[in-house]
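Throughout this chapter, every protein is written as a compact record of paired, labelled lines. The reader may check this reading against the record printed directly beneath this paragraph:
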Amino acid sequence: MLAVVPSATLFGLEGRPIRVEVDVAPGLPGFTVVGLADTAVQEARERVRGAIRNAGFTFPPRRLTVNLAPAELRKTGASLDLAIAMGILLGSEQVRAGPAAVAFIGELGLDGEVRPVPGILPMAAALAERGIERVVLAAAAVDEARLVGGIDAIGAATLAEAASIVRRRRPRRPPVAMPRVTIADRGDANVRQVPVTGIAVPDLREVRGQAGARRALEIALAGGHGLLMTGPPGVGKTLLARTIPGLLPPLDDAAALSVSIVASAAGEGPITELRRQPPFRAPHHTLSYAAMVGGGSTLSPGEITRAHDGVLFLDELAEFDRDVLEALRQPLEEGRIVIARAGRVMTFPARFQLIAAMNPCPCGFAGSYPEDRCRCTIAEVDRYGRRVSGPLRDRIDLWVSMPRMPSATLISGHDPEDSATVGARIGAARARAAADRGRVNGRLCGRSLRRACRLSDQASRRIADLAEAELASGRGTERLLRVARTIADLDGATGVDVPHIEEAAWYRSPILKHAALAS
């Protein structure tokens, strides 16, 4: 007998509906799976066989052929286990289904336990688009599936429980209305501060001194700009970066759904509600190229995609492999990464904000007091700095040096502003940019950037002089304008004036800092 069971698999960040066709025919016992299945799907034969027996059913001693359609689409992971088992039970007439189509998603244990799999959210969305209204999956994944409007998600702890759900034809639960959006480029119109849960986030008041670096971080987060912090060990570079989750405003519905889809596909579940907190990723400098950009046999998202609509923090920037750092150049400009593998091409979203920190030399003390503390040669210092290429440096909007603070400042200095105060200013600046330009300033370019700046003749001449002093490229000049526009937003100014340009130049490069001081 032939049984057809709807299911789904994960392809990158997308869910793909799959028809699991099971033919239970007379003949010598055998179990064949066809339809471009990877190793995990092929191994489902043994998991399904054990689960059916240990759930109290009989594994039919017949010729079983399982076809996974469409045949040209590669199937990965263990999400089809439950559907294959239900197809065998339906085909051998041990279970009789009702007239309504029911999809099954889940991995099976040998004892018949139904386990959650990565990507429930995009897979449930793909089934809903195909008109499937009911889906049976692991009980732990029900809340995640219910984030998709139009889906009646039913939890099952075991294969036997899944079979009983089909038998009793459970009434359909009214669907929850949720926004149906895709991952795309959006503006940031959030102004409300939200608490950070699940991780320990230091308050900004813990960073004592370092007024220039604190101001640079505020500008960077308000405009979505890249930031590079340099300085000797222990001056607070990492601590300052760790305060970022407490400074960023919450995501809107569209961005929250995008972030939740990425988290679901990356296996960061269980996801019980849309993730409103912007992601903050801080990978170790030993990670591989594939771990950064994504890929592998299952085309899983990398760190730059998992930081989409959030922040990617790279501590010890110069210690990362050169090819890993160079892979950031295109995503920083385009907001996406295209991964091509044999017969497959996947585009991942990667619109992230880069925050980085590094030492000035291998020992970390070049240029610090006392001067004789650094034992590196000039060639070693130069070689260490060249680990970060010029094109990548040109894509970073703000550079700030963090010197060692006097002990008196750290122990008895006045308490600086806390995260709530600075976060409110960041949210207000982002809201102002979203209302006027539809996006954060870090994403402006060309005529839209010049129109947003509203430069006076004096400001235009000053920006030209500073760009010539640095011999800046067109990209570098635009980045200087973007930072100046963000500083104007923090000041509540309609247009960019000379003081805003001067401050932006201060954070752009040592050459521009000198030119700004000379004015």
User: Anything to note?
Assistant: Residues 174-198, 511-519 have pLDDT under 50 and may be disordered. The longest strand covers residues 14-25. The longest helix spans residues 419-437.
